[in-house]
Structure formats: structure tokens, C-alpha cells
Design goal:
- The chain has a single domain, classed as Amidase signature (AS) domain (Amidase signature (AS) enzymes, Alpha-Beta Complex), CATH 3.90.1300.10.
- Helix content is 35%, strand content 13%.
- The chain has 14 helices and 13 strands.
- The protein has helices at 2-8, 12-20, 26-44, 52-67, 111-118, 161-168, 185-191, 224-234, 278-293, 309-324, 337-347, 351-371, 412-415, 445-456, and strands at 47-50, 79-83, 122-127, 139-140, 144-145, 174-179, 194-197, 216-221, 264-267, 297-300, 377-381, 420-427, 433-439.
- Strands 1-3-2-6-8-7-12-13-11-9-10 form an 11-stranded mixed sheet, sandwiched between helices. The protein has a two-stranded antiparallel sheet with strand order 4-5.
- Strand 12 and strand 13 (433-439) form a beta hairpin.
């Protein structure tokens, strides 16, 4: 069992080291993880597609390269997964929906998938998502309920539900997620793993999301270094995305161990408008104090901007309406009712109202740019509550109307396009993970990763009680 856990929870960086020493082979690791997937899938339901044949074929090719002393790429033989909102050659992208035709053209990889293949990664399969990634929970009409490895009665969060659950459960070290209003960071917080929403455009995306400039693609991993390694791979150029940023010359592992001494960091416990569970508030505040012990100057702040909730809802509902407009109205009974209701609201939004919401988004970006002239980073709790019970859309129905009402810290930083990460910072008394959010200025992905790595050195490794 010790050997099995060593492989299950091995980092990508340690696997590469073991391959180089011939202490472990890509085929051995891939077979083990596929067996683990088979064992755990009935319990957590993290995968909608498993490419057993393709994964083993890629692992055998990788093994041959390592045996010849000729590995290629940065991830040769490392197992990865793809969220089922991203294209993966040879398999349909069903997006958690019964509406999507499985008999579709599947000849193309998304940019992130293509970069992983080029780096030699072994793709295990595709992970579950709520329908079209519209909400922060882990269920869909197509794949049913995805469960949290820390407590099977709880959601892992969404929309990168299967990615976070598989990562926490030790089914591969590297996972691709996407984040339109928190969909990497929310499940990372609920599932006790590290997730990074990079600066918008840092990871090229294709086809474009109906949520427009809100949606980012990025890594979910168990260690910051693995996420940094993965981001270097994912940020490679792809001319299919007109919003993609120019590639960076350095690697995100460079300078990762540099620490935060002398940095000026703001900590906001509520952003001026969020209601936070006292147990989570205490854990996040303690995490912020740890940055002081690491040598940073930490200053508590409250309100930075007014809640952009209404503007986000306008942008989100309009995107949902555009999304469902492609499908016949008589098939709405097959769709998640919450998504149908959101799209109906979107159909009533005028162009003037949409542009007004987009101006709020722009203004929010201006405010945060000014904020970061004073502060290197912003810290907040990632989630104000622990993982919700499965089948429950609201944490407190008496005060909440939408899922974003229990995720007030996530969506503002989609609107601003900034890099933001969730890193584990403790457990509740009932054993559910708590996350800390680290937000950096636009384009400062390396700064967020460096701060996350510094904090990671102060934390014990977290593994769920799942086998």
C-alpha cells in the first residue's frame, strides 16, 4: 500500500526524475493509475471518457524514449487529464450535456491538449463538468453526480469537477481545467488541491467560450511546482486564439523558490461585501499571517471595489442565452433547469445593458490596476463556505439566489482577467478542505506561483481519506 500511495500521489516532477533513473516506467505508472481509476470511478465519478488504449500506447512510446535516453518535451510519460469542455482528438466533447451530438468531428485538439501531447504527456481521459460549465457544482444531466474524495456526500465544486476530484484522489498529477467565474479555483478549494487561473490569454483557447473574456484555461495539480511546469507547457503559442498573449521566454519554475520577503501584500477577509463562515475566516486569516512569517509586509484591507455581482450576472446570462440559442427549443427538457432559467434571463438583456455590464468589468480592471500599484498581491479566503452537499445548489436559500452568491471571491477576478490561485490552507473541524486565494496583477502569473510556493512550504501535505 505504501508503494501504491507513493505512485498515486507522486508529483509530475518526481515522476520525471524516477523515469530518468529508471526506477519507474511510464507504462507502470499508467497501468497503475488506470487500475486506480477503475477502482475509484464508481465512487467519485470523475471521468466521462477513459482512453485506456491511447494512454497505454502513449506510455509505451514514452517508455521507449526513456530507455533510449531520448525523452522529449517537458512532460514525457506524465499522466494528465482533459476537462470535457476542451477538444481532445479522437473523442467527442460532450460538455456534460445530453444535447450535444456524440457523432461530431473529433479530429482536432484544443490548444491545451495539443501542447500536452507535444510535451509527451499521457492523456488518461476526459473529466466531468456540469452542463456547459455553467455552474460551480459537480453534476450534469449527462454524467450525473461527481463526488468529493474528502467526503462522498459533498460536491467537489465545479465546473472543473472531475479534474479536481481526480487530482485529489490520486488519479494523475496534472489536470486541465477552465475558469469562467471560479471553475478552477472553486473545486480546487473544495477538493484540497492547487489550482491556477492564469492571466486571460496566457493559455490559448479554442474554440472560444460563449462567456467571452471571462473564461480562462489553466492547471490543477497537487503541488505548485507541478502547476508551474504545466503552465510553461500550456502557454505555448497557438494562432487559433486571437486573444492569446505572446509566449514568455522563461519557464515558470524559474525563480519559484525566491520567496516573498519584502513584498507588500493585502489581505481582505470579505472584500467588503462577503459573508464568511467563522471557521474558514479564522483559517484564512492565519494563512495571511504566515506570509508575515515568510518576510512579507501584510496589511488588512476591507472594501476594494463594490460588488460586481449584477454585472457578472448580466454577462453570464447573456453567454448562456447565446449558448442555448444553438439548440432547438423543444429539447429544453433535457437541459439543467438552472441553465434554462439563466438563459431565459439572458434573452431579455438588451445590448445597452450588456455594454453597461462590460463597462463595469472594465472599471473593475482599472481599480485593481491602481490597487496593485501599492500591493504586490491580494489574499482572500477562496470560498466562504466548505463544500456543499451533493444535490444542493445553494448554501443558504434564505439569503442566496444564485450559486455565485456562495462564491463571492471568485468571479471579480475573471472580470479583471488577473491571475488568481487557490491553495489549501487547512481543514474544517469536519475534515473538509479550506482554500486561500492569491491574486496578482495582470501578467504576473510568476508572482502568484512564487507566493503560492512560499506558502506551500509552511503547510502539511493533504490527502483525502479515500483509499
Amino acid at each position: 500500500m505504501a508503494r501504491e500511495n507513493e505512485v498515486a500521489y507522486a508529483s509530475a516532477i518526481s515522476l520525471l526524475d524516477l523515469y530518468g533513473k529508471r526506477a519507474l516506467s511510464p507504462v507502470e505508472v499508467t497501468r497503475f493509475l488506470l487500475d486506480r481509476l477503475d477502482t475509484l470511478q464508481p465512487r467519485i465519478n470523475a471521468f466521462c471518457i477513459v482512453d485506456r488504449e491511447g494512454a497505454l500506447a502513449a506510455a509505451r512510446e514514452s517508455e521507449g524514449r526513456w530507455q533510449r535516453g531520448e525523452p522529449f518535451g517537458r512532460l514525457d510519460g506524465v499522466p494528465v487529464t482533459i476537462k470535457d469542455l476542451l477538444l481532445m482528438r479522437g473523442f467527442p466533447t460532450l460538455r456534460g450535456s445530453c444535447l450535444v451530438d456524440p457523432d461530431q468531428d473529433s479530429s482536432e485538439d484544443a490548444p491545451a491538449t495539443a501542447r500536452l501531447r507535444e510535451a509527451g504527456a499521457v492523456i488518461l481521459g476526459k473529466t466531468t463538468t456540469p452542463e456547459f460549465g455553467w455552474k460551480a457544482l459537480g453534476d450534469s444531466p449527462l454524467t450525473g453526480i461527481t463526488r468529493n474524495p474528502w467526503d462522498l456526500s459533498r460536491t467537489p465544486g465545479g465546473s472543473s469537477a472531475g479534474a479536481a476530484a481526480a487530482c485529489a484522489a490520486g488519479i494523475g498529477p496534472l489536470h486541465i481545467g477552465s475558469d469562467g467565474a471560479g471553475s478552477i479555483r472553486i473545486p480546487s478549494a473544495f477538493s484540497g488541491v492547487f489550482g491556477l487561473k492564469p492571466t486571460f490569454g496566457r493559455v490559448p483557447a479554442y474554440p472560444p467560450s460563449p462567456m467571452g473574456l471571462l473564461s480562462h484555461v489553466g492547471p490543477i495539480a497537487r503541488t505548485v511546482a507541478d502547476a508551474a511546469l504545466m503552465l510553461t507547457v500550456l502557454s505555448g503559442p497557438d494562432d487559433r486564439d486571437p486573444y492569446a498573449l505572446p509566449p514568455v521566454d522563461s519557464e515558470y519554475l524559474d525563480g519559484l523558490e525566491g520567496g516573498v520577503r519584502g513584498w507588500r501584500i493585502a489581505y481582505s477577509p470579505t472584500l467588503g461585501y462577503a459573508k464568511v463562515d467563522p471557521e474558514i475566516a479564522a483559517s484564512a486569516a492565519d494563512a495571511a499571517r504566515r506570509f508575515e512569517a515568510l518576510g512579507a509586509v501584510v496589511e488588512e484591507v476591507e472594501a476594494i471595489f463594490a460588488s460586481p455581482r449584477e454585472a457578472l450576472l448580466t454577462l453570464w446570462a447573456a453567454g448562456a442565452a447565446k449558448l442555448l440559442a444553438a439548440f432547438p427549443a423543444d429539447r429544453k427538457l433535457l437541459i439543467d433547469p438552472g441553465l434554462v432559467a439563466t438563459a431565459a434571463e439572458g434573452e431579455r438583456i438588451s445590448a445597452v445593458d450588456y455594454l453597461g455590464a462590460d463597462l463595469v468589468r472594465t472599471s473593475l480592471g482599472e481599480q485593481m490596476a491602481a490597487f496593485h500599484r501599492k500591493y504586490d498581491l491580494l489574499l482572500t479566503p477562496m470560498m466562504p463556505v466548505a463544500a456543499l452537499p451533493v444535490g444542493q445548489d445553494l448554501n443558504d436559500p434564505t439569503t442566496e439566489r444564485r450559486w455565485i452568491d456562495w462564491s463571492p471571491f471568485s468571479y471579480p477576478f475573471n472580470m479583471t482577467r488577473q491571475p488568481a490561485a487557490s491553495i489549501p490552507c487547512g481543514l474544517t473541524r469536519t475534515g473538509l478542505p479550506i482554500g486561500l486565494q492569491i491574486v496578482g496583477p495582470l501578467y504576473a502569473d510568476d508572482r502568484v506561483l512564487r507566493a503560492a510556493r512560499a506558502f506551500e512550504t509552511t503547510q502539511p501535505e493533504m490527502r483525502p481519506p479515500l483509499g
